[in-house]
Design brief:
The strands form two sheets. Strands 4-3-5-6-8-7-9 form a seven-stranded mixed β-sheet, covered by helices on one side. The chain has a two-stranded antiparallel ribbon with strand order 1-2. 37% of the residues are buried. It has a single domain, classed as 2-Layer Sandwich (Muramoyl-pentapeptide Carboxypeptidase, domain 2), CATH 3.30.1380.10. Helix 1 runs parallel beside helix 4 and helix 4 crosses helix 6. With 193 residues, the protein is of the alpha+beta class.
């Protein structure tokens, strides 16, 4: 997938209640805590970066080119939502585009290749309820149901590093599941566990 360089009605995309521009400013602030050289960060933030994902359940691959300060077209967002569908029920819902921005920021700040293995994306209410019966770690009102959460890992960046960067970004919930080897990222309220 290639990013379409068209802008939305207001010229920016809401990201967890703030504009993409404000989000990128916040990324810069987090970077100053995590990256020793502001010049290195500035040059990496200005480049297009490919993000690729592998769904561990469906065995599908999906990717896109993320260009800072540009909005995502409807086709890209539709394919992103389909890729992260509830594989148990084979249903999807629109996923929050802010998740793409969050993955971009995590990729830049960790220095990773932008390759993620997806453990979970959207969950239907029925699937979420079923998973709650199987595990105590599944929230009743999960952000997965709202299309605002993703569980992931990466082969080239440890989950602890992903967690630390996501916590510094303060863009939503961050859950660390060391024994299951994944990190939960969402665009809801700022919290961690």
């Amino acid at each position: 997938m290639i990013l379409n360089h068209t802008k939305g009605r207001n010229g920016h995309l809401a990201t967890g209640g703030i504009s993409r521009r404000a989000f990128l400013t916040r990324v810069g602030a987090a970077a100053s805590l995590l990256i020793p050289s502001a010049d290195v960060f500035a040059s990496s933030l200005g480049r297009e970066r490919r993000i690729s994902m592998f769904n561990t359940h469906t065995k599908e691959e999906w990717g896109f080119v993320c260009a800072p300060q540009q909005n995502y077209d409807e086709g890209l967002l539709g394919s992103f939502s389909h890729f992260l569908r509830d594989h148990h029920a084979d249903v999807s819902r629109p996923m929050d585009p802010a998740l793409l921005d969050l993955l971009y920021a995590v990729t830049v700040l960790t220095g990773g290749r932008g390759e993620y293995n997806i453990v979970s994306g959207y969950r239907s209410p029925e699937t979420n309820q079923w998973l709650r019966k199987m595990s105590h770690g599944v929230a009743e009102h999960s952000m997965h149901i709202e299309g605002k959460a993703i569980d992931l890992r990466s082969d080239d960046v440890g989950i602890r590093s992903i967690q630390q960067v996501a916590l510094a970004l303060q863009q939503g919930g961050v859950g660390y599941y060391g024994s299951a080897d994944f990190v939960h990222l969402d665009t809801g309220e700022i919290r961690s566990w």
